[in-house]
UniProtKB/TrEMBL annotation:
Membrane topology listed for this record: Multi-pass membrane protein
GO biological process: lipid homeostasis
Pfam family, one: TRAM_LAG1_CLN8
Protein name, per record: TLC domain-containing protein
Membrane-spanning ranges: 7-26, 65-87, 99-121
UniProt subcellular location: Membrane
GO cellular component: endoplasmic reticulum; membrane
């Protein structure tokens, strides 16, 4: 059933994240970036709420519109701005991260880039969904 949840990208994202978090926790290297990445998950509650609105047939409600705006704002803040800061922090502190195990260096590079690309792709979908919702809402208010 994972195709209904996002397909292979969904599985890839969670496997990549799980391996990274497990590595950081078991080997105790650089938990700061793990915490930064875990803050990304603040968007999960709004995304789950969107699913409940969809299932309940409430896509036309004001609560759905508010939730779409909340998804946009939290996604932009937690996954785009914080992720950009994380890359800046890695770059700024490269001399420190350079002395860590080579596996960690690969983790920091590969995982951060892969998750960032996936976040940007999903943010694009979020913006499109918000624009569609706003357009529908503005059409409804014109005829009321």
């Amino acid at each position: 059933l994972y195709f209904s949840l996002g397909g292979s990208k969904y599985i890839f994202h969670h496997c990549l994240s799980g391996v990274s978090v497990a590595y950081y926790l078991f080997f105790g290297e650089d938990q700061l970036y793990t915490y930064m990445v875990l803050i990304f998950e603040v968007t999960t509650s709004e995304i789950n709420l969107r699913g409940y609105f969809d299932i309940s047939g409430l896509k036309q409600s004001e609560a759905y519109l508010i939730n779409e705006v909340a998804i946009f704002l939290t996604w932009k803040t937690a996954r785009i701005i914080l992720c950009s800061y994380m890359f800046y922090h890695i770059y700024k502190n490269y001399q420190i991260t350079k002395i860590l195990a080579s596996f960690f260096q690969n983790q920091t590079s590969v995982v951060s880039i892969a998750l960032s690309v996936m976040n940007l792709m999903s943010f694009g979908k979020t913006v499109k969904r918000l624009m569609i919702t706003l357009e529908k809402d503005s059409e409804d208010t014109i005829f009321l």
